[in-house]
């Protein structure tokens, strides 16, 4: 299986040596291309769609007034997603990012969005805070850095550490073949849409909404957004949005 080849040290070595800008974290598709803008506007449109479809979930309510409105930005890189997308909906973020130079650069976003905490580590080592839960957990272009079993375990923890009405967003490349594809450059896997759905189900999550990102260059993998919430308990009534 493709994920057996993942090596965390190789991955962090790679990400610690890219340029600390859009070009570095987006594999050469920096600000000289349309990719960063198209990506951000697609994400904002996706959250707005979610907002209109689902009055009881992020970024609407109801929210537990005792909980802070904090979004966890997973594999945040230079904090691009927090700065360009999450800041439009949420007042504060926690940044989870293992590569030192990237997390240092992410400190600059504090003029735009309040960063509550910086966690310099990978998904596989993250212990969720014990004194608050997240309003939203945003994973973008980073979950391919961990094997399937580690991702399922992390998503289960995300579910447990989500406020009532909170949402998990996963925005990732989809494999164009029937199999997941290993990339030796950053030691990551690109998963099929079917694999993602299976892993979400194994983690006890249900898919509220899923959509392909439009407007990206044709030579890139298809990019898909998933909005996830804890699976419905038997006694609850389920409303499907897809
Ligand atoms: C393609 S970049 C995406 C960065 C950011 N999410 C964005 O969209 O701008 C991949 C990011 O995943 C991070 N990463 C690498 N290994 C990771 C791990 N095990 N857990 C979490 N993030 C990881 C990298 O350091 C890098 O910042």
UniProtKB/TrEMBL annotation:
GO CC, alphabetical = cytoplasm
Kindly state which reaction or reactions the protein catalyses: N-terminal L-alanyl-L-prolyl-L-lysyl-[protein] + 3 S-adenosyl-L-methionine = N-terminal N,N,N-trimethyl-L-alanyl-L-prolyl-L-lysyl-[protein] + 3 S-adenosyl-L-homocysteine + 3 H(+); N-terminal L-prolyl-L-prolyl-L-lysyl-[protein] + 2 S-adenosyl-L-methionine = N-terminal N,N-dimethyl-L-prolyl-L-prolyl-L-lysyl-[protein] + 2 S-adenosyl-L-homocysteine + 2 H(+); N-terminal L-seryl-L-prolyl-L-lysyl-[protein] + 3 S-adenosyl-L-methionine = N-terminal N,N,N-trimethyl-L-seryl-L-prolyl-L-lysyl-[protein] + 3 S-adenosyl-L-homocysteine + 3 H(+)
Q: What is its EC number?
A: 2.1.1.244
Task: State the species of origin.
Answer: Starmerella bacillaris
**Record-annotated residues binding S-adenosyl-L-methionine?**
75, 80, 123-124, 140
By its UniProt entry, which Pfam families does this protein fall under?
A: Methyltransf_PK
Task: Tell me its family.
Answer: Belongs to the methyltransferase superfamily. NTM1 family.
According to the UniProt entry, its GO molecular function terms are: N-terminal protein N-methyltransferase activity
Gene Ontology process terms (BP): methylation
- InterPro entries found in the cross-reference section: MeTrfase_NTM1, SAM-dependent_MTases_sf
Q: What protein name is recorded for this chain?
A: Alpha N-terminal protein methyltransferase 1
From the UniProt record, list the coiled-coil ranges.
none
């Amino acid at each position: 299986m493709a994920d057996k080849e993942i090596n965390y040290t190789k991955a962090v070595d790679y990400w610690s040596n890219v340029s600390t800008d859009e070009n570095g974290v987006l594999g050469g598709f920096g600000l000289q291309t349309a990719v960063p803008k198209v990506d951000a506007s697609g994400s904002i449109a996706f959250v707005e769609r979610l907002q209109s479809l689902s009055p009881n979930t992020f970024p609407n309510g109801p929210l537990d007034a005792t909980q802070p409105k904090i979004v966890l930005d997973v594999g945040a890189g230079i904090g691009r997603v927090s700065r360009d997308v999450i800041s439009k909906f949420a007042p504060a973020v926690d940044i989870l990012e293992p590569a030192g130079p990237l997390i240092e650069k992410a400190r600059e976003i504090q003029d735009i969005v309040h960063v509550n905490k910086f966690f310099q580590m990978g998904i596989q080592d993250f212990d969720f805070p014990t004194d608050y839960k997240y309003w939203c957990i945003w994973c973008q272009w980073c979950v391919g850095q961990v094997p399937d079993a580690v991702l399922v375990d992390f998503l289960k923890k995300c579910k447990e550490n989500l406020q009532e009405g909170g949402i998990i967003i996963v925005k990732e490349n989809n494999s164009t073949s029937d199999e997941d594809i290993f990339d030796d450059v950053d030691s990551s896997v690109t998963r099929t849409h079917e694999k993602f759905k299976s892993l979400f189900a194994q983690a006890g999550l249900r898919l509220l909404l899923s959509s392909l990102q439009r407007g990206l260059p044709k030579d890139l993998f298809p990019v898909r957004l998933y909005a996830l919430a804890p699976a419905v308990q038997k006694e609850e009534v389920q409303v499907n949005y897809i």
